[in-house]
Amino acid sequence: MGAAPPRPPAADGMKRTPLRGRSVKKAQADRLRKWLRTQFLAIHPDCERCGQPASDVHEIIRRSQAKDAALRPELFVALCRACHTWATEHPRAAHATGYVLWSWEDNDDALEVARIKRRIPYR
Ligand SMILES: [Zn+2]
Q: What's the 20 CA to ligand 1 centre distance in angstroms?
């Protein structure tokens, strides 16, 4: 591919630089996140809650509460869309059954308890 042809000046004569949609750093993180999700679903093809084919990677700590949650496979749970919707809409019940952790439970012990609640054997 060669360089893009020069853009004609805007009607008002001002030069304009197109806005960059997202930073290089964000684009790299997005690529890594997508790759991690694809790999995780390949390893965990079934919904952990109901056994149907998994379609979603659920993070048991909300991304709003752990900024890097999407890049931390230890927080991932493979779910089907219906179970993912349930976990999102019923956080208290999801917490009781190991599908949600509160932000202050972001530690190895709480993650292990959540695994036990979900009846996943120790690794
Ligand atoms: Zn399910």
A: 38
